[in-house]
Specification:
By secondary structure, this protein is α/β, with parallel strands linked by helices. It contains six helices and seven strands; from the N terminus they run ββααβααβαββαβ. It starts with 7 loop residues before the first strand and ends with a strand.
């Protein structure tokens, strides 16, 4: 097994009932009221887990292709990063990475298919702080986190964490 390209993952919940429904209603239907309790608990969890020397210099939300963002109306990873960043006084660098192209939705793909689907999709567009945390809603196979962390490391990040609301069981 290869070592992940990030130093730690802070993910408090499993993506199962009731968390999966709360995130789904927020992400796919725009019902922000369902995610509010998760955001509050997530901020508390991260704050309790972080030592002073582990605080990132910036939060990097998982980027969404502009057409998918336009279709959905928001990027849930950016929303989460902005909320947590405001609670913990950590800046959000939402424009440091972008998706070069739209890809097939990841939902029904396995890890190998996700890695192929996302190959070369992330482009670093600005200076990357030395210590960053990638922020996303759900970590399923870790493909997005891996490829995004690889791109950030190639651009100069030395310490990369992954922060997400939930992970799939297993």
């Amino acid at each position: 097994m290869t070592k992940p390209p990030f130093s730690r993952a802070l993910i408090p919940w499993r993506y199962q009932f009731p968390v999966d429904g709360m995130i789904g209603r927020y992400k796919y239907n725009g019902h922000r009221k369902f995610v509010r309790p998760l955001l509050a608990g997530f901020s508390e969890f991260v704050e309790q887990q972080l030592a002073a020397d582990q605080r990132p210099d910036a939060l990097i939300p998982a980027p969404m292709h502009w057409s998918r963002r336009w279709q959905r109306g928001f990027n849930q990873a950016l929303d989460i990063a902005e909320f947590v960043g405001s609670q913990l006084d950590i800046p959000v660098a939402g424009d440091v990475v972008r998706r070069r192209r739209r890809v097939t939705a990841q939902r029904k793909l396995n890890r190998a298919e996700r890695l192929v689907n996302l190959a070369g999709v992330f482009e670093v567009c600005g200076p990357v702080p030395a210590r960053v945390a990638i922020v996303d809603d759900v970590v399923t196979t870790g493909a997005t986190a891996k490829l995004l962390a690889d791109a950030l490391r190639d651009a100069g990040a030395r310490d990369i964490q992954v922060w997400a609301l939930a992970r799939t069981p297993g």
